[in-house]
User: What shape does this take?
Amino acid sequence: MVHLGQKRRGAVQGECYPGIEPIHCAVLSNTKGLYLIMTTNQLDNLDVDISQMRPEFETQLANLVAIPTISSDPRRTADIQRGVEFAAELLANSGFTTRIVSTAGNPVVCGKLIINPSWPTVTFYNHLDVQPVDPSEWQTDPFNLTIKGDRYFGRGTVDDKGPALAILMAVQYVREQNVPLNFTCIWEFEEEVGSAHFEDFIKAEQATLATDSVLVADTVWQAAGRPAISYGLRGLVSFELTLQTGTSDVHSGLAGGVARNPLGELAHIITECYDATTGHVNIPGFYDDVQPVTTAELNGFTASGFSATDFAAVHGFISMRISKDAEVLSRIMTEPSFEVHGLVGGYTGPGVKNIIPPTATAKLSARLVPNQDPVRIFNLIKNFIKERHPDIQMRMVDMCNPYLGETQGPYATAATDATKYAFGIAPVFVREGGSIGSVLTMSKHLKVPIMLLGLGLPEHGYHSVNENFDWLQAAGGIKLFVKYFTEIAKIQRPE
Amino acid sequence: MVHLGQKRRGAVQGECYPGIEPIHCAVLSNTKGLYLIMTTNQLDNLDVDISQMRPEFETQLANLVAIPTISSDPRRTADIQRGVEFAAELLANSGFTTRIVSTAGNPVVCGKLIINPSWPTVTFYNHLDVQPVDPSEWQTDPFNLTIKGDRYFGRGTVDDKGPALAILMAVQYVREQNVPLNFTCIWEFEEEVGSAHFEDFIKAEQATLATDSVLVADTVWQAAGRPAISYGLRGLVSFELTLQTGTSDVHSGLAGGVARNPLGELAHIITECYDATTGHVNIPGFYDDVQPVTTAELNGFTASGFSATDFAAVHGFISMRISKDAEVLSRIMTEPSFEVHGLVGGYTGPGVKNIIPPTATAKLSARLVPNQDPVRIFNLIKNFIKERHPDIQMRMVDMCNPYLGETQGPYATAATDATKYAFGIAPVFVREGGSIGSVLTMSKHLKVPIMLLGLGLPEHGYHSVNENFDWLQAAGGIKLFVKYFTEIAKIQRPE
Assistant: This one.
């Protein structure tokens, strides 16, 4: 078996014209050698082959989008099941041995394509559940794929059904090319609700999931045309604060001034915890374990094509706490944050009803960065609040560690090369502001390098109305994954 | 026409045994004189006569309760109309000339019983609309009067249908006794939604509403057996604060730290405005115009039978900001307060959804005391907030001046005497923590003394589930009003 990348690079390195990528040099400079002819043919064919995949990609994306796999909606259990079965069939049709693995929550679809046990194995992970929708806010039917030119509208198109299909098509392709690689597929159906049972699944299946590396495509570039590889994720600790001071609404004329007001007290506590104007967290020790970011990392972030103005426009922000590109990126990628997500209690209808509510609950979270520990942070917050307000009830809802992956080593190099090959430009290494629990879980239990090669763009509207994906990112993604697979097939296992 | 009170008091004053009321002395000491025989007969008969009114009282209370006149519920428009028509019929059956006066909101039922234009006129005011109900929380059907012993359960029994009936029965009685008094009735159907059109009604009808005094029965004693006459009401300014920083929910992983959080900022603003733990308002100038309360007033309050422990129990408070009886009363009756009624915006479902909401609204109000001006207070609050947070939108929802009525003069004396006569104990003069907009409106436009002779008890559950009234308060109330009418019939008009 010939590994084209090795030969190609060996043959042409050093002959390149400045500013022209080696892969193009290969074609320009030498078309005679057997390996190089193969290389050239494969390169030539790949773009054509990918363009020929388009009808199949669109058909299968439409099939996936048509199943409303909304994991947060208990009424969608049957749709989740339909989605699981369809996904298993899709894998089986690509030659995978598939299993639908039950968990205490939604099943996981697991596929194996083991051609030669001595070859390395790559595990690719996607999730096929989606965010809820409010159809009245959408310009198209969110569960009927609508194609406008190169763009695909529908819930799940970019998060994460489209990228999942792009990987699967790349797998089919390299399989046909006899690239010496085995594949394991993990398709989750609970990512959008916090992957509560994913760790149980990974632990239970650990023996069958031995792998050399993991590929995840569920991240977003900062700008179109500026590929980004995510190597860091923020962690999370989310919690509820509940204060009960009475048993029923009381008219403020009867008791105003004397009755405790749980909404007012929660507002006070929130304000003690953080300065909402600047975002600064006031809890002593909160920032203690934050790992400083290097200048090299920061330079990578700012090279990502990020624009704070575009960022504000994409998210619909009227104003932001800060507005300089580098500062915004650094804040999201490397700094912890504190958020109020909702306050429950009291009157929320039209006008004002003069009642003092008996109880109120604040829904809060903190995003964490390496090396903050969610349990330690939860306890810091809890102690800080409890010291001041002993009758507050505090309940942890969810937690997730921050994550830092590799920016160097053979997988990072393969990812860099594959991205350059597919999109014509070297990727930047960035971090994500969000948390992907499954990445943490796989990192912890599978103990192999994980590459986050996402295809999303800011304009795709992750989690938003009118979510969309596009063929340029899909086609580029297939090309990226084909190249990445061919590259990592050559990586020697550590002794 | 003989005014029994005058003669009785003249004849027997000075002959009383210590601790025994003059009215009883009269019966004990002298039964021969014509006036005194009449007096004694009337006194003897009144209790019997009132006891004979009970079946009619219960029948009509059941009829009134059966009509769900919930003014806050637009689906109850037909019920309001039924209530209006039934009320007009009730007045007509008592000899009143009735009119249903349209307003831009619900109609007002207006009745006149003018026997002799040279006699003084008393105007009695009640409201026949009621608070909404959640039937699942009630132990009985809220719109089917349930009689348990002396107690009447049903929405509106104490607030304000029962007291309205007690006045009407007293009017019928004194009319039969030829007490020289004319009557005007004002029955409102929008009190529970802020009496938005009541001032328009009073202004439009001002010429037909000329009167010598007003009687309102819509207040609550501090304890059973301790009659209280309310002479003060707190004012109110209610408002909404809205902060919009974006256009849609954004995932906190994508923007947390950089995006403004309108809920967090509103919490911050609320905490700047007041200390929710103590209740102290931090806005400069807020307390400037608060009229100091006299020791005599405070002594009256503490003689009301108020118990902070009972107060907490009745309202279901687990704890309060303060707990000493006198301090609690003073706080409610004479001090302004600041309340958060609700915060709208963000995620309020189960668990925590990690979104940053684009907008949030806080529903707030301040209770005011003499001589705070709602408009001045609103502007103080607005300037305080706007200086710190220029992009906040602030909207006034409702306002009502504080009110201080008479504790001396002929009407206060008549009310005191009548209360003593009916309930065997002199009343205390107290203030209410709430606001009754209609009282302010009548005070402003009718320009006559207003007596607030309420019959509610803490255990009656104003505005609460299982609202109730009882025959002892109703019968005592009829007796009180009979006596009050006979007393005020003798008051000379000022030249």
Notes: DSSP finds 15 helices and 18 strands in chain B.
